[in-house]
Prior knowledge:
Helices cover 34% and strands 30% of the residues. The protein is α/β, with parallel strands linked by helices.
Amino acid sequence: xxxxxxxxxxxxxxxxxxxxxxxxxxxxxxxxxxxxxxxxxxxxxxxxxxxxxxxxxxxxxxxxxxxxxxxxxxxxxxxxxxxxxxxxxxxxxxxxxxxxxxxxxxxxxxxxxxxxxxxxxxxxxxxxxxxxxxxxxxxxxxxxxxxxxxxxxxxxxxxxxxxxxxxxxxxxxxxxxxxxxxxxxxxxxxxxxxxxxxxxxxxxxxxxxxxxxxxxxxxxxxxxx
Length: 225
């Protein structure tokens, strides 16, 4: 599904060039559950933005399902993000006064899916993350942190994306709630979803089936569990 060939990202500030991702080469196959781990400044969040077509490369090649991402224009990149990639972020990014159901089906509005179909798909996505029906009509700001993150995961699922990219999804959660969220990802993986998880926590990374360790923008280790 993903193939990176010597991908490099350099940020230029005046006369100072900072290489954040340095000639990374790896593949991620359909159905894998991969954790990308590293300390602050290792390049893992920049790599996530590249994989999610949110940032461009300085050099190298990034292929998504055999397609050279650098060849796509802004509209094509937006369409790729909307239809092929599900994003989960540390901060949840939910609308606080909107219902759980509306938060989940929001991406479908931009795809012009009829309301009845939107609600049906949202309910299915919420069922897939084990969200109780009694919460569907609550506002998201009435939920616990773990429940909000499961809603965010359901929102990432609602378009049936080919891959889920999760950036520090347990960063704001306590240990017990973090494991509930990770159990949700493991369930989705068992259903065939491809998942790439960005984290700095080794115990969280252990939930994946493969760990790519970054340091100073380079791959330090790539191991299967």
